[in-house]
Amino acid sequence: MAQQRVKLALIDLSGTLHVDDQPTKGAVEALKRLRQHGVQVKFVTNTTKESVGSLFERLRKIGFELERDEIYGSLGAAAEYVRKNKLNPYYLLTDDARTDMPPNDPDRPLDSVVVGLAPGRFCYDHLNEAFRVLHQKSAKHEVQLVAVHEGRYYKAKDGIALGPGCFVKGLEYSTGVPAVCIGKPNEYFFRSALPDGTDVGDCVMIGDDPNDDCLGAMRIGMKGYLVETGKYQPEMYNDDNRPAVSGIFPTFSDVVQHIITSLHH
């Protein structure tokens, strides 16, 4: 069967292209090669700790060539959701991430909570404040819990670190308010990242999270390639329970080599 041509690669950032301020091995060069072979790229990220502007500056500084509008993040998708639903949220976000979100309206009561990765805000006082906003639900008063994403953990320079998912689940448990999840692996997120008229069969997703990146993309008909440079820990799996993704590769650079090779067959 003829190999389908890859026209667009959706690429995860943290753990795939870089870990903190360090590019993964060969990633800067590999990204250039992918573009040279006519593959369009879009960077899709659940990163909620920093604004798109900060993320863009960081990537440029460590050597990646990209345009700011090539980054599509769950933070931007969440901001769009807040605007569309005219919410006035209590934000459990970093100050930097807040700059991507609509400002609060001081003349209206808080009617929702937005949670991203905000280590400095995950203390009892802030979580209790979020709990109180959500606890006001009644027949007349609708409240919403918006999870920018529900990641369990991520790869930081000093090892695996706790994600926002457990705080979202804790608020759900204590308030009975189910969360609306915006980012990966939500089908809405993947579809809204694709340019109009793109055929999912011509797209691949490259990431370090078996579920949120690869299986999420595969559910809508894309290929999902997993890298071993981030949160995916191959030593925790064996042949029987290895994730059923389209391919597992040591690095992003190895995935690019695979795509380029398949373009020429």
UniProtKB/TrEMBL annotation:
Keyword Metal-binding appears in the UniProt entry: yes
Cellular component terms per the entry's GO annotation: cytoplasm; nucleus
Protein name in UniProt: Haloacid dehalogenase-like hydrolase domain-containing protein 2
PANTHER family to which the protein is assigned, alphabetical: 4-NITROPHENYLPHOSPHATASE-RELATED, HALOACID DEHALOGENASE-LIKE HYDROLASE DOMAIN-CONTAINING PROTEIN 2
Keyword set, alphabetical order: Cytoplasm, Hydrolase, Magnesium, Metal-binding, Nucleus
Chief location bin: cytoplasm
Main EC class the enzyme belongs to: hydrolase
PROSITE patterns: STAS
Entry function: Phosphatase that hydrolyzes imidodiphosphate, 3-phosphohistidine and 6-phospholysine. Has broad substrate specificity and can also hydrolyze inorganic diphosphate, but with lower efficiency.
Stored InterPro entries: HAD-like_sf, HAD-SF_hydro_IIA, HAD_sf, LHPP/HDHD2, STAS_dom
